[in-house]
Amino acid sequence: RDAGHGTFRFFEAAMDDQVQTRRRLELDLRRALAMREFVLLYQPQLNLASHEITGFEALLRWHSPRHGVVPPSVFIPLAEEFGLIGAIGEWVIRTACREAAGWERPLSVAVNVSAAQFGASNLVPVVLSALGESGLDPRRLELEITESVLLKDDGSVLDVLRMVRRIGVHVSMDDFGTGYSSLSRLHSFPFDKIKIDQTFVRVQPNDTSATAIVRAISALGRSLGIATIAEGVETAEQFDRVAAAGCTDVQGYLISPPVPADRIADVMREHSASPAGT
Ligand code: C2E
Ligand code: MG
Ligand code: MG
Ligand code: MG
């Protein structure tokens, strides 16, 4: 009985701990913007026809003095829960536009937009003012949304997407193949690019079903007249396979991991120096 009691106390303490940790994370996350603890890393995207880097995806990192480098998979859901995603997302769009406007070549910059940011519904004015203050050509900005964004299908999300599209901004479907009713989503909006999820790309050489899926998505993109980019390409074998399957572009550690803004010029130079680079 003593042991049982001890165990209960242990769980109670652990739960207290968890509540404490979450509370701490929330407080720290609330101050992170003001404390300038966020940074954007950029990962290049390589076009297979030209063998050139055509753009970079901005990926958010939180450098917390207390928690270390926190990955977005951890703090984005918390930011959504705490109602902070609007402000953080706005910072991401403004920062990505400003930094991309300073690049030595006019490549595209892709920004991830989560479902909750559409709920905040000030996305269009934010995009407009970020473009205005940075001077970035709207055609260089790309918004990446996942299928979950389109799940609450009351038309308001599509209205926002159509408006940003009219400004000239591109819209990509991220993590394609992992959500719900992918095909009807593609039918409901004219996406500019399909990002094939890593689960079909980062696989063993003998995974023939994954390869068949990549081939089918690439064919779909081709018939719709839109780009298909394979995410998470880590090996030369995976590179060759998605290229043979008909993807138009690739992204992944093989080309480059996400890099800090001050390394972008190097990455551009490395890849224009050796066109067949991989
Ligand atoms: P995502 O948009 O699908 O981004 C791709 C993720 O895969 C990134 O993880 C990237 O670092 C990682 N990755 C790229 N190439 C490889 C590879 O070859 N191998 C492996 N193992 N991983 C690779 P990250 O940066 O941790 O981001 C995770 C997710 O967090 C993103 O998935 C995106 O959904 C979300 N996210 C990132 N930044 C933002 C942001 O600014 N706003 C919002 N709302 N979400 C963001
Ligand atoms: Mg993305
Ligand atoms: Mg993705
Ligand atoms: Mg993802």
What report would you give on this structure?
The protein is an alpha/beta fold. Helices cover 47% and strands 20% of the residues. It is built from ten helices and ten strands. It has an eight-stranded mixed barrel with strand order 1-2-4-5-6-7-8-9, surrounded by five helices. A hairpin with a 3-residue loop joins strand 2 and strand 3. Helix 3 packs parallel to helix 5 and helix 5 packs parallel to helix 6. The longest helix is centred in the N-terminal third of the chain and has 31 residues. The radius of gyration is 21 Å and the shape is globular. The N and C termini lie far apart (64 Å). One magnesium ion (MG) binds next to strand 6.
- For the termini, the CA-CA separation is 64 Å
Q: Which secondary-structure class do the elements indicate?
A: alpha/beta
**Unreliable stretches, pLDDT < 50, 5 or more residues?**
none
Main β-sheet description: 8 strands, mixed, barrel
Mean pLDDT: 90
Helix content: 40-55%
Write out the distinct hetero groups bound to the structure: ligand C2E, magnesium ion
If helices are DSSP runs of H or I spanning 4 or more residues, what is the number of helices? 10
Radius of gyration: 21 Å
Task: Give the strand tally.
Answer: 10
Strand proportion: 15-25%
Organism: Blastochloris tepida
Protein name: GGDEF-domain containing protein
Domain EAL: 22-272
